[in-house]
Amino acid sequence: MHKGSMLKDKVAVVTGSGRGIGRDIALEMAAQGAKIVVNDVGASVSGEGNDASLGQQVVDEIKAMGGQAALSTDSVAEWHSAHRIVQCAVDHFGRIDIVVNNAGILRDRMFFAMSQDEWKAVIDVHLNGSFNVSRAAAPHFKSQQSGAYVHMTSTSGLIGNLGQANYGAAKLGIVALSRSIAGDMKRYNVRSNCISPFAWSRMIGSIPTDTPEQQARVEKLKKLDTAQIAPMAAFLASDAAAEVTSQIFAVRGNEIFLMSQPRPVRGMHTAEGWTPETIAERVLPAMKPNFFPLESSAVVFSWDPV
Question: How many domains, the chain?
């Protein structure tokens, strides 16, 4: 954690900040001078339970280092409770400048076995939660003509992963949400960006370790500290990032990547219009070399982090 003043006098809401990446972001932002609403319902990885002491510990840590913090135990998944999270910032500190949408749960299951509840629970926290908290802050950002959103996406959505249809769909949905927020709120000097973090946390603690290859991958991930994500979040929330919006950054150890976004790769035109047959005969062979392989994050990021 680096002491600085990049977020002096700013007020940040960090959801899911009782532990893991969220906790490190809250501590880093506090060290940079921000006043923090530590929001955490204190649930298990799958979303069960309610332990307010986790968030309170982080509040106490921030106060012990001379910072200001308040605790919120409201859920991001419901419209009204998400609004209470933002109101907590306004009540305690008089304003809100930064929203970090970090709260998340996992219900990993192969798609063909996934239940409706497993789908809905993950979408509610990640995607609906990111919308709810962002939307609650929007009128404040709009009226003060400033504000920054930092959302958490994942290579499970950007690239793909087995057994995470719910999580991957939510995380790619968050990218589109961030882009829409960036566009809709640009005129109010409000920015919105995504971080795709690589770090050992409870979120990936459920990766299967049935084979030696999987075990080796998990051992590598365990070396990636959640605290290494926090500097990027603090930067994106700061005035130094005034020109940065609608971007996706991946952070892996000491590596930072700018991730691509969907754009046309190949195009074909015919004056007479296409038929299913001519698509099979002409389009398929022309475009097939440019098809994207069905890959997982581990294949795309195949080298060890430095």
Answer: 1
